[in-house]
Amino acid sequence: MTPTFTLSDGTSIPALGLGTVKSEGEDMAATVGSALDAGYRLIDTALRYETEGGVGEAVRASSVPREDILVTTKIPGRYHGYDEAKESVQLSLEGLGLDHIDLLLIHWPLPKVDKYVDTWRAMIDLQKDGVVTSIGVSNFTEAHLDRIVRETGVAPVVNQVELHPFFPQADLRAYHAEHGIVTESWSPLGRGSELLKAAPVAEAAAAHDVSPGQVVLRWHHQLGAVPLPKSSNPDRQKQNLDIFDFALTQGEVDAISSLERGRIWDQDPDTHEEF
Question: Where does the record place the catalytic residues (predicted)?
């Protein structure tokens, strides 16, 4: 059974979820279906990923009750603005084939466009209308978070950001903790092979008789973050989810965190534009 974190709006979120950025030729419905069978209950998609159709198909076909599955999707940059955000959500609902969205995020703040506050206002109203259960953001800095709270009085329940041992985001995680925001980690395994071969990761894997990937995902969990690993392989999906029956020592956590070197995707939220 996957542990959960309680969000500031009183709902809960599983401590680990499935990312759904599509790989070439992948059958997303099959990927999500096997993940649900393995025990995943948090599925993260986005309008921009073009995977909502497969996600929705798997959720509708699954024997897992709909109320037990938390589906996240995101508003892309081309739909920033009050009316545009509502249009984006309607497109996502149609694509997913679901009657509501469990967690809706702003995908990127796009400060040059300067419409993320209006987008956030639309999301607040969509939540009031029951179309969306919980609302949050992705790739927001402390300054972006401060602004939406200052101008609307409503804080996001999560902020999904690039986070892995090469970029632990300690200051932002501390800000989140202080303001009751749960941290979600995209690209939680970095680019994969290099990170998984790093000495602190390999040594912890040997010490606990687990895989390097499990060590890194456990590191996220012990930082209080919710990692969203992506895998279409059923065995790897199960392995990624199996991180809750061992614990890293504080020394191991610190050693893995010491791998910090900065962003690996060169996507600074103050300048990155993604529509």
Answer: 49 (proton donor)
Beta bridge partners of 185: 161, 227
Q: How far apart are CA 155 and CA 257, in angstroms?
A: 28
pLDDT of residue 193: 82
Q: Residues 236-251: what's their mean pLDDT?
A: 98
- 3-state DSSP percent of the chain in helix, strand and coil, to 5: 45, 15, 40
3-state SS, residue 173: helix
Statement: residue 173 has pLDDT above 90: yes
CA angle 85, 88, 93 (to 5 degrees): 130
Is 49 considered catalytic here? yes
Instruction: Tell me the per-residue pLDDT of 195-216, one tens digit each, with 9 for 90 and over.
Output: 999 999 999 999 999 999 999 9
For residue 243, CA distances in Å to 8, 122, 162, 208, 213 come to 25, 37, 20, 11, 10
Binding residues: 107
Which residues does 113 contact at the CB level (< 8 Å), separation at least 6? 77, 80, 273
The span from the CA of 46 to the CA of 59, in Å, is 15
Residue 216 and residue 204 in contact, taking contact as beta carbons nearer than 8 Å = no
Among 40, 49, 79, 116, the one annotated catalytic: 49
Query: Which residues are part of a known binding site for substrate?
Result: 107
pLDDT at 8 over 90: yes
* Distance in angstroms (rounded) separating the CA atoms of residues 134 and 123: 9
Distance CA 21, CA 104 (A): 16
For domain 13-258, which CATH number applies: 3.40.50.300, 3.40.50.150, 3.40.630.30, 3.20.20.100? 3.20.20.100
Q: What is the pTM of this model?
A: 0.97
What tokens appear for 44 in the block?
């993260």
